[in-house]
């Protein structure tokens, strides 16, 4: 899960960096005044920053949703395992108590026979 998230973040960062570099190079080689070019670069950088924030928000929400799903699944599984273990413990505890009581009676009977 985290490997997939890292790949997605890396791809997103690479796409944004490539887009920004392409826009900046295109503007620098365009035949316009420096002041106008700098304004376009600034505006485009702000647009890219907003896009990055939006994508980060989307990815963050997806990660939170997945975490919630995994967390609830884990809790359900842990509760199921705990109940299974408790039921098994109760079942075998009763059997052990019964066998121990029978064994104690047998030992007591043997001791009484030895005393006679």
Automatic annotation (TrEMBL):
<dbReference type="InterPro" id="IPR024623">
    <property type="entry name" value="YtxH"/>
</dbReference>
<feature type="transmembrane region" description="Helical">
    <location>
        <begin position="12"/>
        <end position="30"/>
    </location>
</feature>
<dbReference type="InterPro" id="IPR052928">
    <property type="entry name" value="Desiccation-related_membrane"/>
</dbReference>
<dbReference type="Pfam" id="PF12732">
    <property type="entry name" value="YtxH"/>
</dbReference>
<keyword id="KW-0812">Transmembrane</keyword>
<keyword id="KW-1133">Transmembrane helix</keyword>
<keyword id="KW-0472">Membrane</keyword>
<protein>
    <submittedName>
        <fullName>Gas vesicle protein</fullName>
    </submittedName>
</protein>
């Amino acid at each position: 899960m985290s490997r997939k998230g890292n790949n997605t973040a890396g791809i997103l960062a690479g796409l944004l960096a490539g887009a920004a570099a392409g826009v900046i190079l295109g503007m620098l080689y365009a035949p316009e005044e420096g002041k106008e070019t700098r304004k376009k670069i600034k505006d485009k950088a702000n647009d890219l920053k907003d896009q990055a924030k939006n994508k980060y928000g989307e990815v963050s929400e997806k990660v939170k949703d997945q975490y919630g799903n995994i967390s609830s699944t884990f809790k359900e599984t842990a509760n199921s395992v705990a109940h299974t273990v408790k039921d098994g413990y109760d079942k075998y505890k009763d059997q052990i108590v019964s066998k121990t009581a029978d064994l104690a009676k047998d030992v007591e009977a043997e001791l009484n026979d030895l005393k006679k």
